[in-house]
Amino acid sequence: MKGKYSILVQNNRLRYEFTIYRNITIIRGDSATGKTTLLDLLAAYYRDGESSGVTVRCDVPCVVIGGQHWRESLAPIHGSIVFIDECNAFVKSEDFAVSIKESDNYFAIVTRDDLPNLPYSVNEIYGIMESNKYAGLKQVYNELYQLYM
Prior knowledge:
Blueprint: E1 5-10, E2 14-20, E3 24-27, H1 35-48, E4 55-57, E5 62-65, H2 70-74, E6 81-84, H3 94-102, E7 106-110, E8 125-131, E9 140-146
Parallel strand pairs: 2-9, 3-7, 3-8, 5-6, 6-7
Antiparallel strand pairs: 1-2, 1-4, 8-9
């Protein structure tokens, strides 16, 4: 995969809209900023499709992987954006770094830790920023912002 990919993820309360430019993107932030919620929405859509109540718009498939069987989950995925939550310790492993280098996927990894095994750019580290939040009665619009310039 080459190029940039715009992604829209939304349900009836939340909306995330962002663009991924490189093969490895890091999403960081404090607790309760919406990182895991974004991945939960993507996982629900991947699992249940439109019946999940989630809308995902992207030119390529967006999938969420995790757990101890990550290798088996990643093997059949090609030409996709793979999202991984911070609760997965395998992202720090050398085995995972080798898998990323050999993959034709883009990766968006939610983590607060440094990942010295992965060749990601400091320009591709983002946080989630919220705007237009009205006590859950109106749509929440979230966007990623660059942490390091």
